[in-house]
Amino acid sequence: MKKVNVLGVNFDNLTTNQFKSVFQARxxxxxxxxxxxxxxxxxMAAQENPEYxxxxxxxxxxxTPDGIGIIKASQWLKQPLQERVTxxxxxxWFMRLAAKKQLRVYLIGARLSVIREVQAKLARxxxxxxxxxxxxxxxxxxxxxxxxxxKKTKPDLVFAAxxxxxxxxxxxxxxxxxxxxxxxxxxxxxxxxxxxxxxxxEIFQHFRVEWLYRLLTxxxxxxxxxVLPKFVVRVKQARKKS
Length: 242
Ligand code: UDP
Prior knowledge:
Elements: E1 3-6, E2 9-12, H1 16-28, E3 33-38, H2 40-48, H3 50-59, E4 62-65, H4 68-76, H5 87-101, E5 104-109, H6 112-125, E6 130-135, H7 143-152, E7 157-161, H8 166-176, E8 182-185, H9 189-193, H10 202-206, H11 210-217, H12 222-225, H13 227-241
């Protein structure tokens, strides 16, 4: 399968539909699967954190390009990725699939009020899902313990919304334990799914500036976004070297 290397992180060059069929096949076979939806912030965090880079390089099974910055970078590197594949879209698709097939789902992450709201929405609108766990993301237990606890519930799907790199560290442990589930880090998806945080309006999505909407509605994100110009410079340097 074709991969596109952006600063050491290998993105899978598949369309959303192709990813979905791969994930469905692995789900049917109970193959332990670790999915990362990668954006420039994650790639830059991995440049500074070798342990995180190692997780992305050696433990993740699939990395999808979540974010227009990654698509642009692939174009500059003359290996264009086909399309943006967002964590939120995959998450909602997985929820519909889980309801239809009565799958066992474990959710971990976000604030307690948010996870409770997610739980209520699933009970209302996604009947059929067997929710085998729903806990907030502000626990004190160490990740190994949490991973073992999750594995014991025999989930088909695990979603961790703890922010990076923590969500990926947790899933990496579940993957090491060979948990036979499809597992994905979903960042702020529970906040959006619960209605606590609004997704960017259509117009922002259309012009591919959802990041601008998030910045305007939550200015504390500015600090995080300052890595983006650095990302552009690094990718352009990498292009010159290649
Ligand atoms: N979060 C958590 N535990 C923590 C820190 C964060 O569960 O110790 C949650 C937070 O409540 C939010 C999510 O992790 O729901 C991270 O969201 P953010 O928008 O920062 O993630 P992104 O999608 O940008 O990676």
